[in-house]
Amino acid sequence: MKTFEQKFTAWLDGKLGGDELRSFESKHPSIHQEKAEYLKLKGLLSEGLHRRELENPEFFNSQIMERIRRDAGGPTQASCRMLFGLPRLVWGGILALSVGFAFFITIIPRSDFSDPRAKYVAEVLKTTTADPKVKDTVENRKETTVIKLKGLDKLPPQDLHH
Q1: For residue 133, what are the contacts with CB-CB under 8 A and spacing of at least 6?
Q2: How many Å is the maximal CA-CA distance in the chain?
Q3: How many domains does the chain have?
């Protein structure tokens, strides 16, 4: 259902027709007088208000856009310049390099590789077997770990050479 304003606007524009036009005009008998007043006011406004060209439209547009950005809370050119200025970028790069170097120093393991066996590291996690007759012992010596398993069957001599 259309409101009065929608019907009135359609009637002024000449878009209202048929039964709807007759119904609207019968409900509002003084509508023709209001249309005459509307047309008179429209004529006065169009005579008194004419378009004026701006002398420097780009400057005016840039000022309006800057004001809109400021009012909306968006970044302005000055704030962007301060945020990504050259000194700030240099200090940010130095900070990133120092953090990367600190991670490198703390995470990468360092050891003495003068001994050829020093680069091999082994840790015994579990020394149990499925056979309950087998007993195991672990001996940690200076540079070696010896695991002894007692209770295993001996291998025949021919299997030792393969």
Answers
A1: 151
A2: 127
A3: 1
Neighbours of 9 (CB within 10 A): 13
Q: Is residue 11 part of a domain?
A: yes
Q: One digit per residue, pLDDT tens: the chain, 162 residues?
A: 678 888 888 888 888 888 888 888 888 888 888 888 888 888 888 877 777 776 777 887 888 888 888 888 755 555 556 666 778 888 899 999 999 999 888 887 666 656 655 556 666 677 777 788 888 888 887 777 888 888 887 777 775 555
**CA-to-CA distance for 132 and 41, rounded, in angstroms?**
110
- The answer to whether position 28 is within a domain reads yes
pTM of the model: 0.29
How many Å apart are CA 149 and CA 34, to the nearest integer?
Answer: 113
Q: Which residues of 46-57 are buried (b: 16+ CB within 10 A; e: fewer)?
A: eeeeeeeeeeee
For residue 37, what are the domain limits? 4-48
User: Helix/strand/coil (H, E, C) string of 32-85?
Assistant: HHHHHHHHHHHHHHHHHCCCCCCCCHHHHHHHHHHHHHHHHCCCCHHHHHHHCC
Token digits of residue 98: 């120092």
